[in-house]
């Protein structure tokens, strides 16, 4: 299959997704106004709110004393699963507006706690104990929350934050379960083992087919790791940590596998993001190159041209913080490593991500992870060489081949020194 034919097929396949991304709905403000009405109709008395909680949220501000909360959809207790961030959002062809509306329906009932000594305070702290039970349960649970004030409905959106946006917030003084939640046996095992470090527990749950979104939540609640080291983990950090831990585990699994047979080009787009994944025979090597459209919230100066950020790793990975592409780096890498592990092969991987102006608001790195996963499920185009593949893809990118070769370690065919990344 020629590359141009492959591109045409994929463009037709995702035409509806692009339409959704371009359809910028500004009804979110009206939706937030409606939230206030729904809240007033469900609150009991002056301060008690009862509902079904599908998840939790831990913030980063003022760390190590953080805002930690219970998320509850207001007026939607009949179908709370739609509010849980998961791969189903991608499969639904969800739009950016849909993400914001779903988050705008979630009341974040928060309190402030130190992140440390979580295991010691679970039994004596009703709020943290309830939050943990919500996180480790295998289904959403009913809760009763004592609120100090009415919700603040200013929508919290931060382009620098890789997590899904958080909706209305209210201060809580108490939280209690209205049922005894069921906890999977594997989760009970990780909690009861006092000497199991968090990394081992994360890998254990993943190997037993636990969804990474559930593992994120369990880690965030401080339910994983050695007892004396358990702590609340901000949601944004837990997402990246789980992607990184599982990625390193999978990288070890594929290290001695046979190479793939040819240079493969995979393409997919979602929510104004176009991904090109180029796989080539060879030892593991990975790079994410992000191209950010001028005039977008990611690159606000139109005269600056397309901005480029890159991060790279070699066979042994990296120990230095991923500074340029942040959580997207680990989310995209996980998708590639899962694909190679399932095939029983190894490869070097170059991911080119074009972030267009159609991606007009941040929705979280789940969309990076799920788009890369889906990209690799499709039949690829085949190229004779890595050089030919990169030059062919550049014809569809907003930057020249020469500029990509200057910015990218893999495209330039050079090896950065190990010292650069340690």
TrEMBL record:
Tagged with keyword DNA repair: yes
Keyword field: DNA damage, DNA repair
Limits of the Archaeal Nre N-terminal domain: 20-299
Residues covered by the Archaeal Nre C-terminal domain: 313-421
UniProt KW Metal-binding keyword: no
Gene Ontology annotations of biological process type: DNA repair
Family affiliation: Belongs to the Nre family.
Record function comment: Involved in DNA damage repair.
Database matches in HAMAP family: Nre (MF_02096)
Protein's name according to its UniProt entry: DNA repair protein
Species whose genome carries this gene: Haloquadratum walsbyi (strain DSM 16854 / JCM 12705 / C23)
